[in-house]
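Sequence decides. Consider this:

===
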Amino acid sequence: MILISKIIHDKKMFVKRSAANCLQQVTSVESSIINNTMLIQIAVLAWIFLGERLTWLEIVGLILAAGGILLANLKRQRKS
C-alpha cells in the first residue's frame, strides 16, 4: 500500500512539474488560443472518441466560434 501511495505521489509531482514547465514555455497568445478553443476541442474529441453526433447547426456554430477566436487573436497579435 505504501508503494502505491508513493507511485501516485511521484506521478502527481511529475504532472505538476510538467505543467509548470509548459506554462513557462508557452506565450500568452498561444495560451489564449488554447484556452479559447477548449470548447471546440471538446466537441471534436467527443465526436471522435465518444461517437457524439453533431448537427449541421452545431457544426456551423463551431466554425463561427473558431473564426471569431482566430480573428480576435490575430487582431490582438498585431497590436502587440
